[in-house]
């Protein structure tokens, strides 16, 4: 049921997991304690309302992410048939017979039941047992990113001058963070706003793509 090896397997997995895990609390803090109080004030009924919404979204994002991360969807420990049935195949690496739509992952080093793809951000394969949590993660992640981007748009409008220099700082926040002469914290806020937009677009596209595949009864390899 649970994965035995939870540590990332590759450098790409380590980087992606570290980015994802660190951004959850950072974005929550930024929205709840920096952006939202800018419009509604601090410690009042409206702020508490948005704090509850933000916390609800965070719990669902993190909860589904953890479920995807820890649930084992491989053939390890599963009782599989010893007979080569129609459309079943023998995996020479795992040395066992695997059911249809199972594929061997070179990163996880095992066969995955109903394998869709290997996700670097969760350092595991998306398959039969964790795909529903993956889809719910993408859904709540996208909704959260839209929620953040909506308020961040007004925040950016307040702290960005729409000159050539200001636009460069907005669209190249990381470079401006290193080489710019603005206040460090403002440049960091711009970077977080851009990351929210990137997350919104990426999450929405991935959710749509995988949703279409599910509705068609297909996995990524098909």
UniProtKB/TrEMBL annotation:
EC class of the enzyme, as a word: transferase
Transferase as a keyword?
Answer: yes
Q: Which reaction does it catalyse?
A: L-cysteinyl-[protein] + hexadecanoyl-CoA = S-hexadecanoyl-L-cysteinyl-[protein] + CoA
Transmembrane segments annotated in the record for this chain: 12-40, 46-71, 137-156, 162-179, 191-212
Superkingdom as given in the UniProt entry? Eukaryota
Q: How does it sit in the membrane?
A: Multi-pass membrane protein
In short, the EC number is 2.3.1.225
Q: Where does the record place it? A: Membrane
The terms describing its cellular component in GO are: membrane
Identify the residues that the record assigns to the Palmitoyltransferase DHHC domain, covering every copy: 87-222
Q: Which GO terms describe its molecular function?
A: protein-cysteine S-palmitoyltransferase activity
* Residues of the signal peptide: none
One Pfam assignment: DHHC
Family, as annotated: Belongs to the DHHC palmitoyltransferase family.
Q: What is known of its domains?
A: The DHHC domain is required for palmitoyltransferase activity.
Descriptive protein name: Palmitoyltransferase
To which species is this protein native?
Answer: Panstrongylus lignarius
